[in-house]
# Entry
Amino acid sequence: MTRVLVAMSGGVDSSVAAALVKAAGDEAIGVWMRLHDVADSYSEFKRSCCSLDAAEDARRVAAQLDIPFYIFNLEREFNDGVLQPFLRSYLQGRTPSPCVDCNNVVKFGALLGRARFMYDCEAVATGHYARIENGPEGHRLLRGRDPRKDQSYFLYGLGQEELAHTRFPLGELTKPQVRDVARSMGLTTAEKPDSQEICFVPRGDYREALRDRAGWRPVPGPVIDIDGTEVGEHFGAAGYTVGQRHGVGVALGEVRYVFEIDAEANKIRLGRREDLLVRTFQVEQMRFAAGRPPAARPGSPEDSFQAEVQIRHGGRTAAATVRPGVDGSWIVETEEAVWAAAPGQAAVFYRGDAVVGGGRIVQRRPSAALPPAGG
Amino acid sequence: MPIYLDHAATTPLRREALEAMMPFLTGEFGNPSSLHGQGRRARAGLDEAHERVARAIGAQPREIVFTAGGTEANNLAVKGAAWAGKARGHRIVTTAVEHHSIGHTVRYLEKFGFEIVEVPVDRYGRVDPDAIEAAITPKTILVSVMLANNEVGTIQPVAEIAARVHQHKGILVHTDAVQAAPYLPIDAAALDVDLLSLAAHKFEGPKGTGALYIRHGTNILAQEQGGAQERYRRAGTENVAGAVGMAIALELAVAEQPETVARLAALRETLAAALRGLPDFEETGHLSDRLPGLASFLARGLDGVAVTTALDLAGLACSTGSACVTGSTEVSHVLTAMGYPEDEARGSLRISLGRGTTAEEIDEAARLIVRTIGAQRDAVANLRARGLVPPATGSREPGPMATVEAAAE
# Structure
C-alpha cells in the first residue's frame, strides 16, 4: 500500500481528494497546515480556508474517512516564502502571486519534503484541478478537465521531481462532479461554499494586511495621466494594482486604469484601456516543467520556443515566441496584444493543455517613464 | 493494534469501574437531591463514593467535593481560596511548572489584583522548599504546588513545603495530585495539605469526573452557585455514575499500588536503558524522585511533534511534553522553566506507561523509538541538503513587522 499525504484545507475539494486517495486503495494521511495567525481564530474568519474552523472541518472529514489526521505547523515557511514576498510586492508597486509562492515553497516544497522524508510518504495529494501525465519523456503537468476550475496556472513551478511525487485526484473531474462525490459519501464539507479570497486576508482587503502586517502607513501622492499631467491624488501607491480601474476617469470623460506604479516616488500613472496592451514583456525566475526549455522550432533562433502564454488565473492565452534575454530573463513576444501584464504576476506557458513552464513578469523601470514630481 | 503509552494524557476505563457505574447510568437514574426512592438510592451511591474516595486518601467523606474533573478541582481550589482569602491578603505562591489549570487560573486572578509568584525549579524540575518559604509574605494566602509533574514526572516535596508554609498562619496549601494519584500513596493528613485535586481518568476512572479534597474547616468560596449540592461547595446535580466509577477506580489503584509501581518502574527503566545510547538524546526530569511510569526525553535537533507523528504512523501512541491541538509552536513551559533553551525543548517526548502496559510493548516501543529517531535525523539531514528547513529546529522568527519594514526601507 502506498502512503500518500493529503493536504486538507477543510474545503470540499481537498476533502474529496482525500476520499479518492483512500478509495484508490492507498494509505491516505490527512494533514491540515497551520500557516499563519489567522489560524488562531474561530468563527470571525469563517470564510478563510486557514482558520481553526477549517481545521475542524478537515478533521471531521478525516474521521469520516477513517484516516489519520495531523496539523502541521508551517508558519515559518509560509511567512518567509509567501507572506513577506506578498507584502514586499505591494510595497514595491508589484502584483504578488501568493498562490504560486505557496505551491512552490509550502505545499510542494516544505510539505512534500516532510511527507517524503519524515513520514515515508510516496506522494502529496491536493485538491487542485490539474492533471499529471506520466510518459516516456517524463511527467507532464496538464490543465484540469474543468476549464472553469483549472488551477495549473498556479502550479507551473513544479519540476520533474515534484511532479513525480504529486497526485491531483480531482484532475479529471468538474467541480459539480466533485460536489456529487462529496454528497454521495456524505462528507460534512459537501455543501461548503468555495473560498474566494487570499487565505491570510480574511476580509478580502489586502490593504488591511499591509497596514496590520507590514506597518504600511499610506502617504498620498500624485496621480499622473498618460500625457504627463497631474490629474489627482492617490491615497498611497501600495494600495493600487496595475489594471485596476481608477475613478478619475469619470472626470476625464474616459475610463482610466492604473498603468504603472512607482512605489519609490509614490506616484501612480494612469492609462486608457489601450495603453495597457502590450505585445512584448520580460519574464524572470523562469522554471520549466521538464527542467529545460522546449526545443526550438526548426528555422527559429536557438533557445527560443513557441508557446501560448497566460498572464492571469483563468485568463485567455496568447500565442507567443519566447527567447532568452539578459541575466537569465526571457523575452515574450505575443501575436496578439495582452492586457495589463502587471509586474510580479506569473506568466505561464502552455502547449495545448500541457504546462511548459512559467516565471514572473518583470517590473519596467517606472522612474524613467514618469515625469519628475511636482512637474 | 497500536501500543498505547500515553497514560499521562488519559487511561482506559477499567471494567470494575464501568460495572459499578452501570446501575447509575440505567435503572438508578435518580437525582440525589430527590426525596423519593430513586433519589435516595442515587444519594446512597453518591454517599458511598464520598466515603470510598475519602478512605483512599485518608480523609473524611465530607472533605470530598466531586467536580467535573481535575481542571475544575484546580480552579475551585485556587479561585475558591483566593476569593475567600481576599480580606486577609492577595499573594499566591506557586511554581513555574504547574499544569495550565493552575498556571492560567492564577494569571486570571492576577487581572483582579492578586499578586502571583511563580517559584522557579531546578534542572530536574524540582522546587526548593526554601524558595517557597522565601516567597511567603504576610499577604500570602495560598501556596499551590503540584505533587508530580505531568510532563516530566518529577515529584515535588509537598509534605515538606506544607510543613514550612503552615508555620506561617493563615496560608492554605493546595496540591494538584492529578498525575500522582495512581502511583504515590496519597494521605491528606500526612501531606498536611488543605486542598488536593484528583482526576478520575488518570487512574482508569471515567472522564469528566474529579474531586477536590477540602480539609475540614477550610474556607473556600464556591465557584458554582445554585443548589446545596456537595455541602454548598459545588452546586449542580451530581454526576453520580462518575463519582461511583471514580471511587472504585481509586480504591483499586491504591490497593494495587505497590505492585503497579514496582512493575512500571522496572519497565520504565528497561525503556530508558534501551534509549540511553542514542546521540543527542537525554532523559529529562528528576533521576529518582519521579513517577514510576512516566519517562520523558529530549531529542536535540528534532521536533517532538514530528517524532510523535511518525511514531503514531508506526503504531506507537505517545506525546510531546505538551500536547497541542491547534498546531501552534508553543514550547513546553515546564522544560523552559527547567532551563532548556526553546529549540531544545521542542524535541521533547513523553512516554507514559499504565497498569496494562506489558514488557513486550516496552520492547517494541523501544525498537520503534530508536528507529523513528534515527529516521527523523536522516530526514532532517535530507531536508537540509535540499535547502528545506526542518520543522521547529530553531527559535521563532522575529515578527513580520520588523522584517517587512526593513525590506521596504
Remarks:
- The first strand of chain B starts at residue 3 and ends at 4.
- The longest helix of chain B spans residues 240-275.
- Chain B has 13 helices and twelve strands.
- The CA atoms of residues 252 and 329 of chain B lie 39 Å apart.
